[in-house]
Amino acid sequence: MFIDAKTRVCAVIGNPVEHSLSPAIHNAAFEKEGLPICYVAFRVEDLAPAVAGIRALNLLGVSVTIPHKVAVMAYLDEIEETARQIGSVNTILNRQGRLIGYNSDGTGALRALREAGIELSGKRIVVLGSGGAARAIAFSIGKAAPLSTMTLLSVEPGPCERLAEDLARTLPFPVRWFEHTEESLAQCLKEADGIIHCTPVGMNPHPDATLVPASLLRAGQFVFDAVYTPLKTRLLREAESAGCRVVPGVEMFLYQAAFQFECWTGRRAPLDVMRKVVMECLS
């Protein structure tokens, strides 16, 4: 990549950021498209001056990761509606000094499901988890498709109830929630057309863990797992064996990065190159 005085800069801010795959993915995409843009990683502890620096240095766009996704909202000029409802931002566009916040996590999950041919309209969906990923995915899916019902299950009743209340105020279909127990899980999955897993269970270094016993999975359901390390979790392996349609979390990761690329550049993302880099990094 050739860098000169005309090169624009994008970045990821967070703490830590040393593990981030975003520089490799976005730089490959910018290079493929011949764009004079580079992408770097900044470890940020003090958020306010970092956001001021986006304006002062005229950065083109920024990815926001842990622990700043919620706090950064207070420093932005505008927040896209769904990101505001989700309550967190992971993408910033600098539009002539005006900083606009988006959340590409839910958008990435929604596109991953659509690209896999999953029909959501009229379906009974169970969401496992009530944290940031669950909020992003539940709001994005619920606003995009008229589900029959959405049911939330979580081991944390407080956040789960609050998320259900927030969703119910916005979405035009019934939203239910239950504390996650063996009994509630079995009952909810018996009625479910699709399962969306949004907890860290099954992530490396514990790839043999799962929240869903294989006996509860059945042919005809779809199963999406937001975990992408390992590439195919135990949940997805067992769902595939049961005859379910499966959507791996790496697809969400890929499409959320594609959303960021398209937001910053106004161009269609080169998905083939981005996918190749993601798979090389995760392999």
Please work out how many helical segments DSSP would assign: 10
General shape: globular
Largest sheet: 6 strands, mixed
User: What portion of residues is helical?
Assistant: 25-40%
CATH architectural group of the largest domain: 3-Layer(aba) Sandwich
Rounded mean pLDDT score: 96
Q: What do we call the CATH homologous superfamily of the largest domain?
A: NAD(P)-binding Rossmann-like Domain
End-to-end CA span: 24 Å
Task: Report the portion of residues in β strands.
Answer: 15-25%
Secondary structure category: alpha/beta
Note the main attributes of this structure:
single chain, 283 residues, alpha/beta, Rossmann fold, six-stranded mixed sheet, six-stranded parallel sheet, 12 strands, 40% helix, globular
Please tell me about this protein's structure.
This protein folds into 2 domains: 8-102 and 253-282, Rossmann fold, CATH 3.40.50; 106-247, Rossmann fold. The chain is globular and about 60 Å long. It is α/β, with parallel strands linked by helices and 283 residues long. It has 10 helices and 12 strands. The model has no long low-confidence stretch (mean pLDDT 96). A 6-stranded mixed sheet has the order 2-1-3-5-6-4, with helices on both faces. The longest helix has 17 residues, at 249-265. Helix 1 packs antiparallel against helix 10, helix 4 packs across helix 9 (249-265) and helix 9 crosses helix 10.
